[in-house]
Amino acid sequence: MSVNNILNINEDVYFDSRLVKKEIHSHYPYLTTSYNYNDEIRIPVQQQDNYTLPSESFIYIEGVISGFTPTKTWIDNNGFLFLFSEIRYELCGIEIDASKRPGVTSLMKNYVSFDSQAHDLNEISGWHPFTDTPNADIVHTTANSNSSFNVCIPLNKIIGFAEDYRKILVNVKQELILRRANNDKNVFYSKEAATAAPKIDIKKVVWKMPYITLADMEKYKILQHVQHNSPITMAFRNWDLYEHPSLPTGTSSEIWLIKSSTLLERPRFLIFGFQTGKKEKYDSFASRFDTMSLKKLNVYLNQQKWPYDDLNVSFTDGKFTILYDMMSKFREVYYDHQEGNAIGGVSPGMSLSKFKKYAPLIFIDCSKQNETLKTGTIEVKVEIESSESFPADTSLFCLIIHDRIVTYYPLSNEVKIIM
């Protein structure tokens, strides 16, 4: 505590009365009769004269499960987001943010973002990472063996816009679009893989949106802004997932050109994760990543290399603490945390042993770059090397996080993506 704070005995008492009321309103899809595989579920917020707070909104889902044996089959960690192949967010018909394969995208982002408290708080969304029997409390089984569930999934755990932009939206039409995946195999983990065929039947999907009522003076200020059609700028970070679907067998090295992006989509953070034999298989946890026999991983943005020194790690020989240290820095640099523990760092959300078993992700911080160098495009490339040949059916995921700026005009309902 600063000296100024403890000596300021004449400080005035201040009550913030700018907000009069906050209510949660339910918004339903256009069609509420079909949530089958590959269906597109569109949920609109039509009332443009209200003040909404999408950063605190969440998706509420109810459903029933068939072919489910509670003692032998479980909903995998984060499994409910594997129900969808894509989730998009639109303003005035313009897509400003989206999550491709939201199950994998949110896994990688939340593993490195969550502290211990966040792991507990997000159990209601189906987040239950460090166990072999996940989400046992989420699924309710009755005496006649019918199984049902209900979950609340915060939007700010799915797309970067909802996490970073924490202000109200004024006089703008919003729409959330969810596309069902073509099967439920990545949702479950089963010890009866040979005979398992569990299936989820979604009964209800609701977008729960906070509505804010303002005091008269604050409402007047907002209305003045709207009447002048003054642009409102929204800055946030986009989570962009890429996949190398199958690393070549019989070799221990690979060069992957991930993408060529413009200067406006300059990567700030990259997260890598390997998975072997986990895609659409009941007997594998789709929520876990593998150590492989990784030796080196280097990222190149054009000719600039990260990390500067080669990693030279080996999970087999227990030489991977540097990867854990890199991962543990994510929350500090990404959220600009000033608080820390006794040794000056921000506590990560998992121990070293859990990191190795559940989420051995490689975090690359490239947020500090020489932006005076003006080249037409940025080529994002990764070079990986393993001490052994890559196993068959091995995928490499890369989550690229980059800046995005969107401007909207509240009177004319015009939306522009600046970068």
What is the secondary structure topology, with strand pairs?
Blueprint: H1 3-7, E1 19-27, E2 40-45, E3 51-52, E4 58-66, E5 73-75, E6 84-91, E7 94-100, H2 102-113, H3 116-121, E8 140-141, E9 147-154, H4 160-164, E10 169-170, E11 174-180, E12 188-190, E13 199-214, H5 216-227, E14 232-244, E15 253-262, E16 267-276, E17 294-301, E18 304-306, H6 321-328, H7 330-334, H8 352-358, E19 362-365, E20 377-386, E21 394-409, E22 414-417
Antiparallel strand pairs: 1-13, 2-11, 3-10, 3-13, 4-9, 4-13, 5-12, 6-7, 6-11, 8-9, 14-21, 15-20, 16-19, 16-21, 17-18, 17-20, 21-22
Report what the structure shows.
The protein is mainly beta and 419 residues long. The protein folds into two domains: 220 residues, Adenovirus Type 2 Hexon, domain 4 (Distorted Sandwich), CATH 2.70.9.10; 167 residues, Adenovirus Type 2 Hexon, domain 4 (Distorted Sandwich), CATH 2.70.9.10. Helix content is 14%, strand content 38%. It is built from eight helices and 22 strands. The strands form five sheets. Strands 1, 3, 4, 8, 9, 10 and 13 form a seven-stranded antiparallel beta sheet that branches. Strands 14, 16, 19, 21 and 22 form a five-stranded antiparallel beta sheet that branches. Strands 2-11-6-7 form a four-stranded antiparallel beta sheet. The protein is globular. The model has no long low-confidence stretch (mean pLDDT 90).
